[in-house]
Amino acid sequence: MAGGFCCVQGEFIITAEDVIQEMYFVKVGTVQLINKAGYVLLTLQGGSFFGEIAVLDNQPAKMSVYAVTECELFMLTKV
Fold it and tell me: How much is the average pLDDT of 38-66?
């Protein structure tokens, strides 16, 4: 299944250790991937994606994803 949604600045989209069934694509905005120690490892903008490893490996998310700005995301859900 697929769908789009918006998130507000300052929102955590994924929290480390969440079990997720979705992969996300950033349409508009900026997100940061943050490790469990709180360090920003990567900043992603429009055209980028995240969540694919947790979905493909059926593992809990290894990083948190934080909305630096208001974002429009597209989500693919594993069925």
Answer: 93
Q: Which residues contact 68 (CB under 8 A, 6 or more apart)?
A: 9, 29, 30, 31, 32, 43
* Number of Cβ atoms within 10 Å of the Cβ of 32: 16
| Separation in Å, CA 32 to CA 15, 73, 78 | 12, 14, 23
Taking the C-alpha atoms of residue 5 and residue 60, their distance in angstroms, rounded to an integer, is 22
How do beta strands 30-34 and 40-45 pair? antiparallel
pLDDT at 36: 93
The two structure tokens encoding residue 9: 């600045």
CA distance 25 to 77: 12
pLDDT, residue 2, reads: 66
